[in-house]
Design goal:
The protein is mostly helical and 148 residues long. Helices cover 78% and strands 0% of the residues. α2 packs across α3 and α3 packs antiparallel against α4.
């Protein structure tokens, strides 16, 4: 199977795991969804002079684009892993690489856009970020390896 297709499938599986763990965390701790995807979309639309509409239309488009950016990050991370890894990686190395790719793909752009500053996060925020990304890494790695 081609590396691109395997990356798409593994990324979709990993992103599903990440979202599931995030929503379970929101359910258990009764915490709100992160506002950073919406903030990133707002900053990007301002930077690119993209009109998302007015009122509810703009809010709905912002929400949708924020979610779609998350899916794109998850798929792109697994595709990058496939092209960068070439040969089979051990379980710990593969999982950590995929976790790091997904976390970097999320947090670096958000930091560059001045939406968040991980250096200022409390421990709870790190747990809320690391655990779902680790679920992504485990699931994407397993999916990728099952297709080898």
């Amino acid at each position: 199977m081609h590396t691109l297709v395997k990356g798409l499938i593994a990324g979709a599986a990993g992103t599903t795991a990440l979202n599931t763990v995030s929503y379970l965390d929101m359910l258990v701790r009764a915490r709100a969804a992160s506002s950073t995807p919406r903030q990133a979309v707002a900053k990007l639309s301002d930077l690119t002079h993209t009109d998302l509409g007015e009122g509810d239309r703009a809010a709905n488009r912002t929400e949708a684009l924020g979610s779609l950016m998350g899916y794109a990050t998850g798929v792109a991370s697994a595709i990058a892993y496939g092209f960068l890894s070439g040969r089979r990686r051990s379980w710990p190395v593969g999982v950590l690489a995929l976790t790091a790719l997904a976390m970097s793909g999320s947090n670096v752009p958000l930091t560059l856009l001045d939406v968040t500053h991980p250096s200022e996060w409390p421990a709870g925020a790190w747990v809320s970020d690391v655990v779902p990304h680790l679920a992504y890494g485990i699931t994407a790695y397993a999916a990728y390896e099952l297709m080898r």
